[in-house]
Amino acid sequence: MLTxxxxxxxxxxxxxxxxxxxxxATKPLSVSTIRQSIEKEADIDKVTVYRILSLFRKRGIxxxxxxxxxxxxxxxxxxxxxxxxHFSCRNCGALTCLAPLPFTKAPELILSKDDYSIDHIExxxxxxxxxxxxxxxxxxxxxxxxx
Length: 147
What we know:
The chain is of the alpha+beta class and 147 residues long. It has one domain (13-146): Orthogonal Bundle (Arc Repressor Mutant, subunit A). It contains five helices and six strands; from the N terminus they run H-E-H-H-E-E-E-E-H-E-H. The strands form two sheets. The protein has a three-stranded antiparallel beta sheet with strand order 1-3-2. A three-stranded mixed beta sheet has the order 5-4-6, with no helix packed on it. Strand 4 and strand 5 (95-97) form a beta hairpin.
């Protein structure tokens, strides 16, 4: 079980509220989504949310994911939620978690001849989600019929 105490972070009602929102989330959350969810539980401003998220990132509790549109999302970083790729729709902005990939070549990458010191691995894939792709297909076929 993830606890603030294990990460060396003192418990406050605001930190616990942010942590609980992230623990309950089934996908990465934006700061605005986190704030909207917390408003029901605690009085917390945007700057405080950013500070808490920054602290959680420094202590390895959460991961930050940048979407194709440039928005940042956050998710819990635990054994139950291992590092995994994300798909970002360039049209609607939806961010989806994909299944973790087995990095069978990771030792070769990490122990390469160039002796890299790897701090972070992130895989983000962007394109069109099924809904946006289907909408684009429908618009294209309607446009072709009109011609």
